Amino acid sequence: MTNVNTPIYRWNHSEKGKAYRRKWSKEPKRLEYLEKWGKENKEKIKGYQKKYRENNKEKRDADSRNRIARKRKMLSDIKLESGCCYCGYKKCSAALHFHHKDDSKSFILAHPHQSVEDLLKEVEKCEVICANCHAELHNGGIVKENGN
Predict the structure, then answer these.
(1) Which residue in 85, 80, 117, 115 sits closest to 100, CA to CA?
(2) Could you give phi then psi for residue 69, rounded to 5 degrees?
(3) Three-class SS state of 35
(4) At residue 87, what are phi and psi to the nearest 5 degrees?
């Protein structure tokens, strides 16, 4: 965290279109006032936030879709990089599945709405298996080694 008295700079745009830096003070009195104002005006702040969400719905939806797409790409790359742990298949990420080694499943990896850190923790609990080996594993065709 920065020093309390360190100024914060923010870009402002003048009427003529020139951008300039404006110094924001981080004086203790100013911070105390802002904290007090925030506590006293919770409903007003909620109203501002609701209005922002309503006015920027498309942008927020697009940002959400992009975040999820990046997470899916990350999971796809992990599957292709490691390949099937039984037969070695690694051509198509759609044909590779994350199989939980035990019953400690926190969430389904097919719906990556969690943080990247949580996704990676969940991936560590899994092994990558191709669709054929996954079906055989669940129907008794493949026997797990060492009970894993």
Answers:
(1) 85
(2) -65, -40
(3) helix
(4) -110, -10
CB 95 within 8 A of CB 130: yes
Cβ–Cβ < 8 Å for 109, 122 = yes
Domain residue extents for the chain? 8-55, 74-147
- DSSP-derived letter for residue 13 is E
Please tell me what DSSP assigns to residue 144.
Answer: P
CA atoms within a 13 Å half-sphere pointing along the CA-CB vector of 130: 14
Sign of the C-alpha dihedral, residues 26, 56, 65, 100?
A: positive
| pTM of the predicted protein model | 0.61
Phi/psi at 81 (nearest 5 deg)? -65, -40
Average pLDDT, whole number, for the chain?
Answer: 81
Contact 129, 85 (CB under 8 A): yes
**pLDDT tens-digit series, residues 90-126:** 899 999 999 988 888 888 888 888 888 888 988 998 8
The alpha-carbon radius of gyration of the chain (Å, integer) is 25
Token pair listed for 17? 């279109």
Distance between CA atoms of 35 and 131, rounded to whole angstroms? 55
**CA dist., res. 139 & res. 40, Å (int):** 61
